[in-house]
Amino acid sequence: MSEPMSVGSSALEPPMPSSASSTEPKHGGFTRFELELEFVQSLANPQYLNHLASRKLLTNPSFVAYLDYLQYWSRPPYLKYLTYPGPTLKSLQLLQEERFRQDIISPDLVQALMTEGMKAAVEWHKEG
């Protein structure tokens, strides 16, 4: 997975969900909405979070500001576009905490989060 586009400021307005707009600029053939959706959903993967930490992105103030900006995905109308809103939003929330951004470098924490996710999936299927 590629790294997200650079935003640089949390004052930017979130992109419009309607990615069909012909006036919206494309980045590699994709709209900003599509790129941010793909990136925010990738945050549900603990191994990807570990990758970001190993690249020292989680200590970069601009990247941390970008993570804060992405919290708009927790609100309508954006929320409905998330495939796995529970894990995605949980990770996005945890990434707001400096301690978590430091600790996710640990393979033990990555494994614990992966195990927790698998248990949650099993429980969800039992209830259904």
UniProtKB/TrEMBL annotation:
InterPro entries: Med31_sf (IPR038089), Mediator_Med31 (IPR008831). GO terms for biological process: regulation of DNA-templated transcription. It is found in: Nucleus. One of its GO terms (cellular component) is mediator complex. Belongs to the Mediator complex subunit 31 family. It comes from the Eukaryota. Component of the Mediator complex. Keywords: Activator, Nucleus, Transcription, Transcription regulation. Residues 1-27 are annotated as: Disordered. This is Mediator of RNA polymerase II transcription subunit 31.
